[in-house]
Structures are given as structure tokens and as C-alpha cells.
Amino acid sequence: MEVVRQSPPIQGTAAAVDPLALRRALGAFATGVTVVTVGGARPHGMTANSFTSVSLDPPCILVCVQRTATMHGCLYDAGAFAVSVLGANQEPVARYFASKSRPMGNAQFDTVGWYPGAHTGAPLIVGALAHFECELRGTYDGGDHTIFLGRLLHLRHGPVRPALLFVNGQFGSTSLGSELLP
Q1: Which of 32, 35, 80, 90 could bond to 120 as cystine, CB 3.0-4.6 Å?
Q2: pLDDT at 180
Q3: Which domains does the chain have, with CATH numbers?
């Protein structure tokens, strides 16, 4: 699979933006919390909140990964990835995969319930609200991050339960449940 870069690098703006102020302002936007994983020779997992749907036809999602993160090279090498959307009770899992002191390789999955994705081999986190398995379809420059576009190969979701959120530098949860479904 050939990954195509389709956009020129993003250039800095003329107006200086205080990085701390930007981080605080962006933190006001509540996001869901996921664990992005790759399988293969270099299995790896990373907590991420830069995840979103892109297209229903074809079904595509994206994740953004900082260029200096271990996951960055792992994603390129694997050519496929999975995303586990965490439930409100999975804050310890989110914190674990966000920690720089966790083990690397297969050992990092020793203390977390998981099973291999049938389509990518990437670890899927047990108890997650949803799983997405994707083939890597493209990468795009995103400043200090790379935007990884994945075409959906398989998905799984369970009953609607509260989701884990991250807002203003803290974990929280939705209180939305199945009562909102038609």
C-alpha cells in the first residue's frame, strides 16, 4: 500500500500565538478519548483525542499524531491501525496509554484487556464503546502533527453507555445514555 502525501506543509502565521493560551482555549472543547493501536512487528498503543469521522462513503476516519511520538513511526510502518473509543469507566486505561513510562512493544499490553483485530491485528481494548479497524489511506501535514487518514475495514460497537471525555485538562464523562435513542 502506497501512502500518498497530498498537501504542502503548513507554514507558520505572521501573528504570534501564545502556545499556553492556545492550549487553554483548545482545552475548552470537550473531546472523546480513544486508544489508537497498531499491531504487527511493533505493536503500540497511544491515548488520543484527535480522532474524528471524515466520510461515510467511503467510510473514513482520521487520527492526528505528534511527529515526535513513538506512534508516528509505528503507524507508517504498520499501514493499518485501530481505534478503541473509551467508556467513562476506562480513565485508568487512558492514563496508562498516555504515560511515557509504560513498557514498549508487546509488554505494554500485559496489564490491559485486549484482543487482536480480525482485520488489522491491532490490539482492541476490551470494554471500549466502539472499535474501528482501518487501513492507512493517506497522510497530511498538520504542523507538528501528521494527520493519518484511515479507510474503515471493520467496526464494532456495543450498547450506548457514557463515554470518557477530556476537557480543560481533566477527564470527565457524558451522562448520555440509551434513553436519547429513538
Answers
A1: 80
A2: 42
A3: 30-175 (2.30.110.10)
